Amino acid sequence: MSIGIIGSGNIGSAFARALARAGISATIANSRGPQSLAALEAELKPFIKAGTPLEAASADIVLVAVNWSKLPQALRDLPDWNGRVVIDANNPIEAPLFKPADLGGRLSSEIFGALVPGARVVKAVNHLLSHLVASDPTEEGGRRVLFYSGDDAAAKADVAALIERLGFFGIDLGALAIGGKLAQFPGGPLPALNLVKFG
Fold it and tell me: E strand or H helix at 151, and its extent?
């Protein structure tokens, strides 16, 4: 399966590094254009290449990690997702103020899902600090845990397989209404926990 990344901040870049470490190819894009990613592309060649948001969004699995306030703009001009898997790695909070966004009582994944019509959304990767996403998931003697949740069983299976390929231990938190709430930052109990599965 082809993989795309929209957003080259801490989480997007960390995910790109995790893919490259596992020998998995992907296209990464941001709002500033492929030339702005030349250094990251050089660091992670031959596995990670810089592209346009449209190129990244055309992959079978697309991770989106963009500042919350910029998500509508980042996703606005992309075509219908046609059932492709989209990993929601976003949190409704951003630097420099780190003030929680007003979600009107909704889950962030619910709001995100409306921005990617036709996608099968899986919440994942948002709960772990970026340096832990980028580093060796077995460095502490076990396998670092990555949580995921979603409403489509096949989409979750695809993400679970990718998590396995990256060397993490995936834990299915169930439907978005449950898992999305547990992993959402701020508010959920799971973000920033560095959990390791032994045995």
Answer: none
